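Appendix C reproduces, verbatim, an entry submitted by the partner laboratory led by Prof. M.T., so that reviewers can inspect both the input and the predicted structure.
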Amino acid sequence: MAEPALREGAALLRDARFARLFAARLVSAFGSGMAPIALPFAVLDDLGGTPGDVGLAIATGSAVQIATQLFAGALADRGSRRRQMVGADLLAAAS
């Protein structure tokens, strides 16, 4: 049963637009997954911080994410979804 679903999924990758979207989301997810691993190393090794500084950096990131999400819901209902997805990924890459 899994084999036909695998073939259908592989067939989707033949569409150039879907392949680009898939690759972009894969890179974005990988980068987002690596950030919590890299952050303590950056704070402790590169900046010479303490474990308390790592906690402060994580707390600051969480506070910024919560503040941003308060407005994201209202913005998601307006405008082009494609434009918003591309803009969000560009902003994530820049940050």
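The two ends are 42 Å apart (CA to CA). Additional entries are available on request from the coordinating office.
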